[in-house]
Predict the 3D structure of the following.
Amino acid sequence: MSRLADLPPVARAILSILSAVALFSAMNASIKWLGGRYPISQIIFCRALFAMLVLTPLIWRAGGIMSLRTSRPLGHLARSAIGVISMLCGFTAITLLPLANASALAFTAPLWTTLLGVLVLGEKVRWRRTLALIIGFSGVLVILRPDASLVEGILAGGPQAVGSLLGLCSSFLAACAMISVRRLSSTEPSTTIVFYFMASGMVVSAILMSREFVMPTAHDAMLMVLLGVIGGLAQILLTTAYRSAPVAVVAPFDYTAMLWATGYGFVIWGEVPHPAVALGALIVIGSGVYITLRETRLGKPAPTTAQSTTKNN
């Protein structure tokens, strides 16, 4: 970490975001690998529990247990509840979909955040960003290719259709969580927000896991520990990236996750993204980058800035 601190701020930010995305992508691949044999609640519990190992030194540096005192318990409760449900939906979507599809749907979060910013926070969106939103959501339609078979698949419980629906729900809820983080961050430090989110994830997943726990093999147990640790490390690197450089510099590199997802999917599961998924992802990514750059230029908090505080995976 000392060598990282010695780099120029922009170089440190780019290296940090690239490393964070690589780690989050590895975590998602681990979730998909484990998802067929273990309940999602058990995976979430391990994700939250072992991420705490990484988070604890940061809490200590921030002032220890006293730094976790808060005057906004209901705000943390709402943010954590939304985040945990988003995680449940997102992790389930990863197990049901090709990784590239799940990643592409996750990229819609900045679009949802911009829309919610208008509806919930009363933010003004000019015609350029309105057009970018419309184009971005058209990219979602390209990815999903909605027709009668999609509806039938959802009603019949088909994995692709259900996974797509859950992926969108996860992205929407992640955007709601980002809005909550914007409000909380005015008075609450990032370590406090992340702590209560992870603690809530442990409690909820432990309750669910108590009814469906599966004893892991030694190999899978190590993988469960690893996915929590690398998720925590990725969170720190993500925060470092957004604190070291403007959002406009950092945000575009977040979309390299699509390359990692495609690579993992092909090498491990032989998944080849449908051309429509690739096209739709490019549309969604382009819209997201434009919205981020536009809002940064106007001096407003861009949707992606919330990711520097917490990420719902």
